[in-house]
Amino acid sequence: MEYTNVEKQFLSLMERTDFKNLSKNDVLSYASKLSELRPEVAQQVLAQFPELVKLIQSSMVEYKEILEKIIVSDDDSTNQVYGILNKELEGSHESRKEYIVFADKVRSDLSKCLDNPNLTQEQQKEIIDREMEIFHLVDKKDTEIREQEMETARMADKKDSEKKEFNLKTLRVASFVVLTVVGIGAAALGGKFDIKLPKKL
How many structural domains is the chain composed of? Predict the structure, then answer.
């Protein structure tokens, strides 16, 4: 068979390669270069250098495990953040409820004082002013809690955006590796590689 210049250079490189000392990056680089060869030449190379086939298979298995660990780790991190945010929201809701109950009790006690017929108009006005102050405090507290809830929602949205960005980057890297292997031809490698990518982006 007659080889192109690129194929000759690659074959020469393969003959000079010590397969025992190749890094994972070198293996992926070789696999990438293999995909540039004509299919029949790539098959001959793989048949002639079974060490490369084993290294590619080994690298793909390791890569798959690393990728899965990264995805699981990111999922765990996201779930932990969402758990914290949910607790914050629950705490805000409970705080609002307790504050309103307390304020209502104080207001109710003040209202009972108004039933006293011996109060002067000035004392009645003072009690009504205190009731109004309680209403304003409840409104202020409610506004603070709503702002805190909105900030919590923004944090959740930010984490969700980070998760989507992470998934997209992971997908790009995984796609490059998978396309490299597919370019060589899974049949030539004699194996099947199932890389589970994130379901949602």
Answer: 1
Rg (Cα) of the chain, in Å, rounded? 34
> What whole-number distance in Å separates Cα of residue 91 and Cα of residue 79?
18
Residues 9-29 have pLDDT tens digits of: 888 888 888 878 777 777 777
CA dist 196 → 78, 103, 185 (Å): 18, 54, 19
CA distance linking residue 188 with residue 47, whole number of Å: 8
Residue 196 domain flag: no
Among the listed residues 91, 83, 95, 76, the one whose alpha carbon sits nearest the alpha carbon of residue 166: 76
Q: Hey, is 195 helix, strand or coil?
A: coil
> 0.70 cut: is pTM over it?
no
Which residues are CB-contacts of 52 (< 8 A; sequence separation ≥ 6)?
14, 19, 27, 30, 45, 46
Whether residue 34 lies inside any domain: the answer is yes
For residue range 106-131, what is the model confidence (pLDDT) as tens digits?
Answer: 888 888 888 888 888 998 899 888 88
Range of the domain at 162: 5-189
**Please, which pLDDT band fits residue 169 given cuts at 50, 70 and 90?**
confident
Query: Within a domain: residue 26?
Result: yes
* Residue 195 in domain: no
Rounded Cα distance, 56 and 64, in Å: 12
Q: What is the pLDDT of residue 127?
A: 85
